[in-house]
Design goal:
Strand 4 (about 30-40) and strand 5 (about 45-50) form a beta hairpin. By secondary structure, the protein is mainly β. The protein is globular, with a radius of gyration of 13 Å. The strands form 2 sheets. Strands 2, 4, 5, 6, 9, 10 and 11 form a 7-stranded mixed sheet that branches. A 4-stranded antiparallel sheet has the order 1-3-8-7, with no helix packed on it. Helix content is about 0%, strand content about 50%. The N and C termini lie far apart (about 40 Å).
């Protein structure tokens, strides 16, 4: 059972990226999935989440610019990021709440997003 995050890269401010989180060994549709990020010297923060019931949440820092979506047929969750800012530079991680405790306990390896000015 694992999550594989991809899609990061170097982009100019104002640009667009789409991150993907592909699951193997589990059915994504049954679990809540979230994207977190961690910038150098900062704590990890929640960016967006998608519940197994279909509701979504986007952090205030990303609202209006980021969106989260699922393709259950592909067992993949996406984070669409537009109007990127330099402060969005971070390692982005996807995580799933699989143990039933409500905690995000299965993590992908992270993908680097760097936004240049």
């Amino acid at each position: 059972v694992q999550l594989q995050a991809s899609g990061g890269g170097l982009v100019q401010a104002g640009g667009f990226l789409r991150l993907s989180c592909a699951a193997s060994g589990l059915t994504f549709g049954s679990y809540a999935v979230a994207w977190y990020r961690q910038a150098p010297g900062k704590e990890r923060e929640l960016v967006a989440l998608s519940s197994n019931g279909g509701s979504t949440y986007v952090a205030d820092s990303a609202k209006g610019r980021f969106s989260i979506s699922r393709d259950n047929a592909k067992n993949t969750v996406y984070l669409q990021m537009k109007s990127l800012k330099t402060e969005d530079t971070a390692v982005y991680y996807c995580a799933a709440a699989v143990s039933g405790t409500g905690r995000y306990d299965l993590w992908g390896q992270g993908t680097q997003v760097t936004v240049s000015s």
